[in-house]
Amino acid sequence: MKVEGEINNFILVWSIAVVSLCYCHTIGKLIPKGTSRLLALLPIIILFLFLPLRLYSIHLGGPTCFFLGWLSIFKLLLFAFDSGPLSTNPSLSLRHFIPIACLPIKIQQNPLSQIGNKENPLSQNGNKENPSLHFFKKGRKSPLNYATKALILAAFVPIYENRGNVHPKLILLLYSFHVYIGLEIAMALVAAGARALLGVELEPQFDEPYLSTSLQDFWGRRWNLMVSNILRPTVYNPVLTRSSAVVGRKWAPIPAMLTTFFVSGVMHELIFYYLGREKPTGELMWFFSFHGVCLAIEVAIKKALKGSKWWLPPIVSRPLTVVFVLSTGVRWFLPSLVWCKADEKARIESIAFVEFLTNVYEALKYVCLHLFYFISAAKHNLG
Questions:
Q1: Cis before residue 158, ω within 30 degrees of 0?
Q2: DSSP letter string over 4-55?
Q3: What's the Cα-to-Cα distance from 39 to each of 16, 42, 128, rounded to whole Å?
Q4: Nearest CA among 51, 17, 70 for reference residue 269
Q5: Is 165's pLDDT higher than 80?
Q6: For residues 98 and 21, is the Cβ–Cβ distance under 8 A?
Q7: How far is it, in rounded angstroms, from Cα 174 to Cα 127?
Q8: Cα distances (angstroms) measured from residue 343 to each of 7, 38, 251
Q9: Is 319 left (phi over 0), alpha (psi -120 to 50) or beta?
Q10: Which residues 6+ apart lie within 8 Å of 374 measured at CB?
Q11: Do residues 218 and 321 lie in contact, with contact meaning Cβ atoms separated by under 8 Å?
Q12: Measured between alpha carbons, how far is 15 from 21 in angstroms, rounded to an integer?
């Protein structure tokens, strides 16, 4: 794979995406919400499913398939019915509409308006677990936080280079930390650029998942919150409403959670297909479905013990939660990275990118050197 060709494809894909979102912004002004607007947006939704297929790299194709192939499509589906982050009053300007539609960002709203939302499936104990209030109090992470995590990633490199002498399970465990840190840093960089462009405060995308005290805490408050924020209105809330009429409001969150994790599994299988272009193995579906079942059991137990003083202290629940997530991830999630050769592709791409930068540097040095000689000769002739 040539770096220049992949970069050209990357520019082409995102240029098409931006033009398409300009069309979507216009549609929102001309066509009322509902089926008519959905039909008008459907060609763009289908286009966004195919655009990531133009890219083959991990570093450029990976974020693109996540941003366009998942988040943007779900946001446009909500927008068709005048819901979600793209539907505001007053309407978003084009300058705000495009980045919010295609990037993993969410404008921070007044957290006080969110207090008391106890029906959030991925928050616990009512107000104490409200993500917006938590972020409002906590604020933005420091650059030192990200620098420390980047150094941790750098420390993994020597181990990867000697992977032949390391147990495969340990390598997969390192991959789990690598995925988390890499995602957080990459999404933080995107958010920093969007924050500067939009001039607004954004909600954090991660909140130290290794501090999770339960699966509910992990999936709802700490891990990849941009996904939680988009799955909640597109999948969880509609299923919750319909389930309430069947099983009652108390137990309606259970089928809503199971459906949400099922959809998440489907979308992860799609993303890994983009990366590997191979038939899905089903392990990702099993991972998310299993976690959905476990989370449903956890919520059911909490409902049954509501008012009870019997709770595991954080000193016990935190390591139990982290060990459970890591062990199931190593068993079912991380092998998919090896299956689609994401680790090997990332290594080859890194080497190719360094060579590309070296060639660019040599070309610039050559041009500057000859330009210097030309200017010197011109001054000499004029003199």
A1: no
A2: HHHHHHHHHHHHHHHHHHHHHHHHHHHS-TTHHHHHHHHHHHHHHHHGGGG-
A3: 19, 5, 41
A4: 70
A5: yes
A6: yes
A7: 35
A8: 20, 38, 41
A9: alpha
A10: none
A11: yes
A12: 10
Handedness of CA 31, 34, 37, 39 (dihedral sign): negative
Measured at the CA of 149, the angle between CA 145 and CA 152, to 5 degrees, comes to 145
- Categorize the per-residue pLDDT at 226 as very low, low, confident or very high, splitting at 50, 70 and 90: very high
For 43, 224, 372, the CA distances from 264, given in Å and listed in that order, are 23, 12, 57
Most confident range, picked from 106-110, 255-259, 297-301: 255-259
Which residue bears the tokens 């509409």? 97
User: Which amino acid does the sequence have at 278?
Assistant: E
Rounded to two decimals, what is the model's pTM? 0.82
Task: For the beta carbon of residue 41, count every other beta carbon within 10 angstroms.
Answer: 21
- How many C-beta atoms lie closer than 10 Å to residue 128's C-beta? 9
pLDDT given at position 145: 84
